[in-house]
Design a protein that fits this description.
It contains nine helices and twelve strands. The protein is of the alpha/beta class.
Length: 322
């Protein structure tokens, strides 16, 4: 079996100590294969961005192992980690805040190449020009500033900045949530085409389950810093096994509401990470919770090959398949 490009085991990120410790994410484990797109979904505050940034060591994880292409990242020194980051690039959520207003597009796209010591300036500019063409932007954009472009164009520039370094892994952190609805589909289709054409592995973060279904091979469902369910996109959307997944899917708009099946919409708000529920963190909003759920942290267990869930119950009603 081929080794995964990225392997995360027991990843945790906590702030503070003792009774005041804030557990943002806890005991997160997953793999991303070469050329695979894995989606991270969940409500705001579920820990999606924290997982991505800790895995790339943009923030330091509290615990856990992160192996990228056979190299353990958590033990690398600053210089070695900087070199490794050329192969792991990040597309940020906000295209307005993530591009410097004081730099031309050419300077933005070549900055990473310069920091990595890649090529003379002429070669760096040629790579920047190629990256712009890949994201369907005109090469003459190199001499202009970010404020001269629309939100969708700025996000294309952000994607080009990542591509200029020829990464093996692209982390896309809600890359269309700040864009107009009319532009979102264009950027999603661009990412899909780039991923297939370049053979990129991708960690795609989103709260939009319809987009995740369209783009991702596998999906990880998060709640309050823990994995609730993990499966192939086809399996997860057809036969969700965790009540949280079913509730999220119930909220996905559908032209015919009857086609969504018998799924119970989610009620209430996400608890605070400063005072999470005991046992199963989802139990306070779960329509199927038992008294034992307050005392038992459900392990992530494999129901069938590649389909995992964290729930002690096996007798939950299955939603009707459309």
């Amino acid at each position: 079996m081929t080794s995964p490009l990225l392997s995360v085991r027991g990843l945790a990120k906590h702030y503070g100590a003792g009774a005041r410790r804030l557990r943002i994410v806890d005991d997160i484990s997953f793999d991303i294969g070469t050329g695979e797109v894995v989606g991270l979904v969940g409500e705001s505050g579920s820990g999606k961005t924290t997982i991505a940034r800790a895995a790339l060591r943009l923030i330091e994880p509290t615990a856990g192992s992160v192996v990228f292409d056979g190299t353990e990242l958590t033990t690398l020194g600053p210089a070695a980690m900087r070199r490794m980051r050329a192969r792991m690039q990040y597309v940020f959520q906000d295209p307005y805040a993530s591009l410097s207003p004081r730099m031309t597009v050419g300077e933005i796209l070549t900055e990473g190449l310069r920091i990595q010591g890649i090529g003379p300036q002429a070669a760096r500019m040629e790579r920047a020009r190629t990256a712009l063409i890949q994201v369907e932007m005109p090469p003459d954009a190199l001499d202009r500033y970010a404020h001269e472009f629309s939100g969708g164009q700025r996000q294309r520039i952000g994607i080009a900045r990542a591509l200029a370094l020829a990464p093996a892994l692209l982390v896309a952190d809600e890359p269309v949530s700040a864009l107009d609805v009319s532009i979102q589909a264009q950027v999603i289709n661009l990412l899909r085409d780039l991923q297939r054409r370049l053979g990129l592995s991708m960690l795609f973060i989103s709260h939009d389950l319809a987009v995740v279904e369209y783009l991702c091979d596998r999906v990880i469902v998060l709640y309050l810093g823990r994995i609730m369910e993990m499966a192939s996109s086809e399996t997860l959307y057809a036969t969700p096994a965790h009540p949280y997944t079913s509730a999220l899917l119930a909220a996905v708009p559908h032209p015919d509401p009857a086609q969504r099946g018998r799924r119970t919409p989610l009620q209430g708000d996400v608890p605070s990470a400063a005072a999470p529920p005991s046992g199963c963190v989802f139990r306070t909003r779960c329509p199927h919770a038992l008294p034992t759920c307050a005392a038992t942290v459900p392990p992530l267990r494999e129901l069938s090959p590649g389909h995992w869930k964290a729930c002690i119950r096996d007798d939950l009603p299955q939603p009707a398949t459309p």
